[in-house]
Specification:
The protein has 181 residues and is mainly beta. Helix content is 13%, strand content 56%. It contains two helices and ten strands, in the order H-H-E-E-E-E-E-E-E-E-E-E. It starts with 6 loop residues before the first helix and ends with a strand. The relative contact order is 0.15. The mean pLDDT is 83.
């Protein structure tokens, strides 16, 4: 004897499964990270003016655009920058993820150096400060990245280089972000 499910029951099951699947996709998978309160204000599209070091003491002015989006509703942010540097197209992807109430981890994928870096830092005095060391044991060559929010429409994200164990710092990139309305 062959058993069949009436068409109206089949249709009901399809509608039920579709509705359940749609609700699961709309669920909020937000992180409960305190750092995101600081980073979340950067979401949006930005015009970026840069001052880029080409050699010690020499700088050029460039421009670009940046889009900053959130990662898993509050775990961190992702910046996608497109602009110019040394007369060529330049792209950079930056992820900043909150580790705890003040700690951050930043990763950078850079088209100029074809490099990927992971750095650690923290939010202190309203600024995100992240360090990179060439040789972690002696820390002679260091980079320092500082993100400072100036208002809802403007922030700065600049980097500095030290070749003497962090005693002196030279600006390598100054990036001024202005919100695109």
């Amino acid at each position: 004897m062959k058993t069949t499910i009436p068409n109206y029951i089949s249709l009901f099951l399809v509608v039920l499964l579709t509705a359940w699947g749609t609700r699961a996709q709309e669920a909020n998978f937000s992180c409960q990270n305190l750092v995101y309160g600081h980073l979340g204000q950067l979401l949006g599209e930005w015009s970026v003016q840069t001052k880029d070091r080409t050699s010690p003491g020499n700088y050029e002015t460039n421009q670009g655009k940046s889009k900053i989006t959130d990662l898993i509703s509050g775990c961190g942010i992702k910046e996608s920058f497109r602009g110019t540097y040394r007369g060529k197209d330049y792209a950079r992807e930056v992820l900043i993820i909150g580790k705890d109430s003040t700690g951050v981890q930043m990763s950078i994928l850079d088209s100029e150096h074809n490099s990927f870096s992971i750095l650690d830092g923290e939010i202190s005095d309203g600024k995100v400060v992240v360090y990179w060391y060439r040789n972690k044991e002696v820390k002679r060559l260091q980079s320092r990245y500082i993100l400072t929010v100036q208002s809802a429409k403007r922030f700065e994200f600049s980097s500095y280089l030290s070749t003497d164990y962090g005693e002196n710092w030279a600006l390598t990139h100054e990036r001024i972000y202005t919100r695109i309305e």
